[in-house]
Amino acid sequence: MAMRLRHIEVFHAVMQAGSLSGAADLLNISQPAASKMLAQAEHSLGLALFKRLPGGLKPTPEAILLFQETKTLHLSLERVRHLARNLASHPGGMLRIGCIPSLGLSLVPQAVAAFARLCPDVSISIRTENNETLSALLLAQEIDVGIAFEPPAQAGIAIEELGRARAVFVGPDDGRADAGVHCVRLADLDFSKWIGLDAADPLGLKINAMLAALDQRDVAPMIEVKTYYVARALAESGVGFTIIDEYTATGMGDRRRVLDLEPALSIGVSVMTAASHAGTHALRVFVQQLAERVEKG
Fold first, then answer.
1. Alpha helix locations (H) across 214-267?
2. Which residue, of 127, 132, 178, 187, has the greatest Cβ tally within 10 A?
3. Is the model's pTM score more than 0.90?
């Protein structure tokens, strides 16, 4: 007899709860029903999974091995149930969005707010990841769309640039804004106080290329960070200055610290979808809302 999905479910519940009564509570069934299913699971495998002790159930070495091997399947079952509940409560379907953290601060929330007004019956799931993880999630069909700054081309991923985001200066509150200064020249900055982005980051690469064009290729950041909002927070704390995208810069903190750059620098805001994904009406509406907000800047 093969081990059924329901058997795996009760087995995992017992492993987590440590007792049949606890497993029954987790599964919202009676204790006799949980005991019967566990006995069926053991019978189907032809081995005992637990030692019955006065203080509860102790897993056998075979049970521990089985638990490790079935974790992924059990998590997949939970995701299917979660999706089914969402679909039942939202007849319009579900939109799974992934974005880099920087765009999750202001741009994506604004687009989601507009989308929710237009498609109130659609359930929305949002997660923030880096470019590489977003691509992997798209290929695994775990998200419907990814939003990032100039993601690299990859087989199986369709990329569309929606517009450009300005790179801006963010520094300590030194009175420039109050004095009517709205722009800083890159060549005039004191790079001994530069909070730089990771050299492999798309915007970091552009900044380094611009510095090389200004014959400052040997300049190194005082602090290097991987996340834009950490760079923003450091600049606000008075540690130094940073150059980041306009969405991160204006989505949090004091906007008086944000100034334009000369020469101007920008980076593309792109949406990624699986090339095999036909695209739903909800996805098209969301991308349109996103594009409108990128265009407004």
1. 228-236, 246-250
2. 127
3. no
